[in-house]
Write a structure and sequence with these properties.
This protein is an all-alpha fold and 377 residues long. It has two domains: 180 residues, Citrate Synthase, domain 1, CATH 1.10.580; 98 residues, Cytochrome p450-Terp, domain 2 (Orthogonal Bundle). It is 58% helix and 3% strand. The chain has 16 helices and three strands. It starts with 25 loop residues before the first strand and ends in a 21-residue tail after the last helix. The chain binds s-citryldethia Coenzyme A. S-citryldethia Coenzyme A binds next to helix 15.
Length: 377
Amino acid sequence: MASSAGNKTTESKGLEGVIALHTGICDIDGQKGKLIYRGYSIEDLAKNCTFEEVAWLLWQGELPTADEKHHLERQLVGERPLPPMARELMEMTPEDVDPMAFLRTGISTLALFDSEADDPSSEANFRKSIRLTAQIPVLLAGFDRRRNGQPLVRPRPDLATAANFLYMLRGEVPGEEAMRIFDTCLILHAEHGLNASTFTGRVIGATLSDVYSGISGAVGALKGPLHGGANRKVMEMLADIDRSGLDPAEWIRQRLTEKARIMGFGHRVYKTLDPRAAILRDMSEALAEERGNRKWFDMSVKVMQTMEQEKGLYPNVDFFSASVYTTLGIPTDLFTPVFAMARITGWTAHLLEQWADNRLIRPRAAYNGPQGRTTKR
Ligand code: SDX
């Protein structure tokens, strides 16, 4: 289709299938259900790496050496302390505020107290990427403690990002299995190509705006239930099924006859099982066995089987993460902020890549409004 600009254009609702840019960070094969970060399969990274190693890989393009890993871990610990205003923000925030709205505001607040917030150098932007990766878990755990009237828990320098979040949230050091599973969850949620929130961040970055503006926009996009907000909706659905007393298959079939969207299923790119969902399914079962409570896992499997039979749809990353996070003791309305706590690494990696070879992102729209009107004044 030729636009009014005269040059050849590609038109696709929701930009489905449109290649907007080239990236070396991540690739997804939606037909085969394959996902790679910088050439490594998600299965390999989930099994053999830590979240901190994957963060470095996303930012730098290579897995860290032992020295680089140690230095990054020390930097992350050193960047955890929040500016005093962030603590005042927690005090002022009403208890019933949506945690993603709090996070969106919290990131904008952090920007006000970062002396290099508007420094466009790649060195400063890398430091801000590490700073946000360190501070978001502290911000979220503090928000949850405050709204529950509990004292803040100071971060522990001997705990990695994933373990430290669970420690600050609940005030007790998680067990080895929980630490490992949650660290793997952060790896699985770290990056996923040009999803809606990452694309939002790159559009903002492409105007040569700053890291905090790009991440604030990305958080806004992730909040939506068609994107990162789905995991919370999955848990609310499982709870609804439980309360109904119906067989999960029957409950799903009823909703499908009402043309409802079943959260945690379907994907714009994957037309088979999301490889992250397969790993999360196994971890959900492992946790269920360890805790001696298969309720949510068994219910999830029945929902999964019904959706495949009735709609030919497969679970995405948000489906089994719901039962994993619940079993880890994470409150349901913190599920999407936890997604952001991991995706901050992918978002910032894409911003660094955008700025390395920038061009303003500005698509066209096909005009379908009236023409040739006059005011006759
Ligand atoms: C994430 O993009 C990414 O990479 C995102 C993500 C990441 O890591 O960043 O993977 C994370 O956001 C995962 C997706 C989380 N969202 C949900 O689980 C919400 C439920 N899913 C859907 O709304 C939907 O599947 C989308 C939004 C994820 C994708 O939708 P598309 O590509 O726009 O497809 P569509 O809405 O046009 O649906 C195609 C058909 C429709 O049937 P018809 O109307 O043509 O008959 O499939 C049906 C839809 O009704 N369908 C569903 C469904 N998803 C699609 N029907 C019921 N339940 C669903 N979940």
